[in-house]
UniProtKB/TrEMBL annotation:
Source organism (scientific name): Acaulospora morrowiae
Lineage, top ranks: Eukaryota, Fungi, Fungi incertae sedis, Mucoromycota, Glomeromycotina
Pfam families, sorted: PK_Tyr_Ser-Thr (PF07714)
BP-aspect Gene Ontology terms: cell surface receptor signaling pathway
Keyword annotations from UniProtKB, A to Z: ATP-binding, Nucleotide-binding
Residue ranges annotated for the Protein kinase domain, each copy included: 189-337
GO molecular function, one term: protein kinase activity
Protein name as catalogued: 913_t:CDS:1
Length: 337
């Protein structure tokens, strides 16, 4: 192209000397030669900018396009009888050799790119597998922790069962006349709570008061017991029975007992249990329309509570809606058993 451009430029400079060259036919050939030179220049630019790489394996090969352009170029040069035809032919051979070399290097570059992409993909796959493995290990550790917590809860529950069983046997023995006289204050003293450890919160629901334990702000229910109607022996039996019920801490489906507290100033005694946020079941379903899913959950909670009491050899003799309390998260708990 440079040689042809130089020859054309030389013709322009020596226009007067080469007037006979600029015939109508040669002018047409020069115009076509210019167009093919523009095509060749554009073609070379595309190769430099790698625009062909995306179409490398689907369109005509580089050699084929190069051959067509150079053939067209050589034809116009031959028709114009330029003196540079031989030089252009030699340059063409050099360009073909260089093009083959560049094509080989391009192929090698593409292979390296493919290998790099494959390596990166394999590396990402390995990293993903490692991450999945770490997550599996974390899940296993969490499962082990959950099992450990479950075992701890079971051991605690069995301990409470054992304590409850021992006290129940003692309580049954104390009901007989030969043991009643042996009932002493030290057998139930742990049931007495200090009223000063609690703060009154509000009066609520048929004589049941809401109090707050000062140490941890736990909400508790104080149910008044008319101690004036109880004989001294009955009061002792009540205190011992509450001590027994305090041991039933292995189930979340029954109301938890915390003990008894005396108000010496008002001469009153209160049974201390956990506070039920929504009151009893009768109050709850009168105030709120229950979804079928909530009804099923309440039924399941009641069944689990009865199953727990049966395991403790306790028969609930007054199972009705007023003796089923609804705590937080709409969880049902058995009471007054």
């Amino acid at each position: 192209i440079h040689a042809a451009s130089a020859a054309i430029q030389n013709l322009k400079i020596r226009k007067e000397e080469n007037r006979q060259f600029f015939t109508e036919t040669n002018l047409v050939l020069l115009s076509k030669l210019k167009k093919v030179m523009i095509k060749i220049a554009k073609y070379i630019k595309e190769i430099r900018e790698f625009k062909w790489l995306r179409r490398y394996f689907t369109s005509k090969s580089i050699e084929e396009t190069f051959r067509l352009l150079t053939t067209e170029f050589d034809g116009y040069i031959s028709s114009l009888n330029f003196s540079i035809i031989i030089e252009l032919k030699m340059q063409n051979e050099k360009d073909c050799a260089a093009l083959k070399h560049d094509t080989h290097e391009t192929n090698q570059l593409l292979l390296q790119l493919v290998e790099s992409v494959n390596y990166n993909k394999e590396f990402r796959d390995d990293v993903t597998k490692i991450k999945d493995g770490v997550m599996d290990i974390k899940e296993c550790v969490q499962d082990i922790k959950n099992i450990k917590d479950c075992v701890h809860d079971i051991v605690t529950m069995l301990k409470h069962f054992e304590e409850f069983s021992t006290m129940k046997k003692l309580f049954n023995n104390l009901q007989s006349s030969q043991y009643k006289s042996e009932l002493k204050e030290e057998d139930f003293i742990d049931s007495l709570l200090n009223l000063g450890d609690f703060t009154f919160a509000e009066r609520s629901r048929g004589g049941i008061q809401k109090w707050i334990r000062n140490s941890d702000h736990l909400e508790l229910a104080f149910t008044e017991i008319n101690s004036n109607l109880l004989s001294k022996e009955h009061q002792k039996s009540l205190l011992f029975e509450v001590s027994l019920l305090k041991k039933l801490r292995g189930s979340r489906d029954i109301v938890q007992f915390y003990g008894l507290v005396k108000d010496e100033y008002r001469s009153k005694m209160y049974l201390v249990t956990e506070w039920s946020q929504y009151g009893n079941l009768r109050e709850y379903y009168k105030q709120k329309k229950l979804k079928p899913s909530i009804k099923l959950q309440i039924a399941l909670d009641i069944a689990l509570g009865l199953n727990f009491l049966q395991a403790c050899q306790i028969l609930h003799r007054d199972l009705r809606s007023v003796n089923i309390m609804i705590g937080s998260h709409e969880h049902a708990k058995l009471a007054n058993f």
